[in-house]
Amino acid sequence: MSYRRKILVVLKGYPRLSETFIAQELLGLEKAGFDLTLISMRRPTDKKRHPVHDEITARVVYLPEYLHEEPVRVLKGLFAGFGKPGFRALWKRFFQDLPRDISRNRFRRLGQALVLAREWPDHGEWLHAHFIHTPASVTEYASILTGVPWTCSAHAKDIWTSPDWELNEKLGSARWTVTCTRSGFEHMRTLTPRKDAVHLSYHGLDLARFGHFAGERSHRDGSDPADPAFILSVGRAVEKKGYDTLLRALALLPGDLNWRFEHIGGGDELLRLKVLATNLGLADRITWKGALAQEDVLDHYRRADLFALACRIAANGDRDGLPNVLVEASSQRLPCISTAVSGVPELLEDGENGLVVPPEEPAALAAALEIAIRDPALRQRLGDAAEARVREHFDYHSSISQLSRLFEQEWQKAS
User: Fold this and answer.
1) Residue 15, preceding bond cis, omega within 30 degrees?
2) Phi, psi at residue 379, to the nearest 5°?
3) At residue 342, does pLDDT exceed 90?
4) In DSSP terms, which residues pair with 290 in a beta bridge?
5) pLDDT tens readout for residues 37-95
6) How confident is the model at residue 2 (pLDDT cuts 50, 70, 90)?
7) Which of 116, 193, 276, 350 has the fewest CB atoms found within 10 Å of its own CB?
8) How many CB atoms neighbour CB 15 within 10 A?
């Protein structure tokens, strides 16, 4: 093993309950021997933590979330920046970017980069950004200013809501970029001549944390009002998750079918969804659980009959990559119903290891739900096939090995 450099990992927020895939990767890199310091652009807002967060030993440094809240740190960063070799290059780049994105956000990223470059925690020797939108902006600016190379993990929203010019700039300056879906991978490769510097790397799952569930699955078929089929969904209540479509699909299920629905997750649209559920006459069948820790989510996967997620492309282009919750549910032999958006078909094949319908079509989703509720044998077959696919193709150790190789190759070149 070659000498491993100290990596400063820039994150939008840490810790976050909705980003277990990032925490899992950080822990995997630590276990592989990498020395990390986490640089968070925001302080945590979640009241709970997952167990994985407590296992990560890396120090966390918080940048000023808003520049006016910590003006002394920002001014010190600015004055220190004048003496750095990349200051003129950074200023030139910033004033190229600004006319294309005249926003407070653009100034905030510059200020955060100046603070990071001045404080430079733990003698960092490499920069790595999680998400190619704002965290990569801070990371790239800090790289220009300090001359320290950078790399990037791109995911979903960050790819599809970033303008092409910005992706082109960042893909050109990062040493390499990885992403977790084939659709994101192919899209980014169209935006850069450096196609070999873009890599596909599925997050996968820590299968030790999501061990095989050997318990008996229920034979509920929706015929018993006293024992209704249990439909589960886990995800933030935001536009791209399609929860309004899912509620409308539930409202279309026939009256003789007995079911209940539980939702796990926070999100800005929860109140609106609860109103919609009431208007559709569904409120007495739905339980809104809010955000839960990972061990509680796992318990729900093991008790549910079906998992449903109605992913869609939002009005601003935002979309999921491959939702980790689908991989998690599949690992527990829980059959999933979802939509043909982004990376979902890379995990679920309709009729083979799940049911996949077009997005934004409540009637198609309702038909799939009804079929699966009425047929416990189908659920058993789909769930078994889903687990087999996850355990063969979505073990996160392969992703950690790939990332380790990419870092090692860069450092071998440098030495």
Assistant:
1) yes
2) -60, -40
3) no
4) 264
5) 999 999 998 888 888 999 999 999 999 999 999 999 999 999 999 989 899 999 999 99
6) low
7) 193
8) 22
> What global pTM score does this model have?
0.86
Beta carbons within 8 Å of 233's beta carbon, 6+ residues apart: 243, 246, 261, 262, 263, 264, 265, 307, 308, 309
Residue with structure tokens 């996968």? 204
How many CB atoms neighbour CB 110 within 10 A? 26
- Strand 177-179 to 150-154 pairing: parallel
Rounded to whole angstroms, what are the CA distances from 353 to 181, 356, 389?
A: 18, 10, 8
* Residues near 22 by beta carbon (within 8 Å), at least 6 away in sequence: 11, 16, 130, 153
Q: Indicate the pLDDT class of residue 223, thresholds 50, 70 and 90.
A: very high
| CA dihedral for 158, 160, 163, 167, sign (positive or negative) | positive
Whole-number Å distance between alpha carbons of 387 and 414: 41
Q: What is the Cα–Cα distance from 414 to 408, expressed in whole angstroms?
A: 10
pLDDT tens across 369-397, in order?
999 999 999 999 999 999 999 999 898 89
pLDDT tens column, 171-185? 999 999 999 889 899
Unique residue bearing structure tokens 């899992």: 24
Instruction: For the chain, state the CA radius of gyration.
Output: 23
- Virtual torsion, Cα 133, 138, 140, 143, nearest 10 deg: -160
| CA–CA gap between residue 109 and residue 139 (Å, rounded) | 9
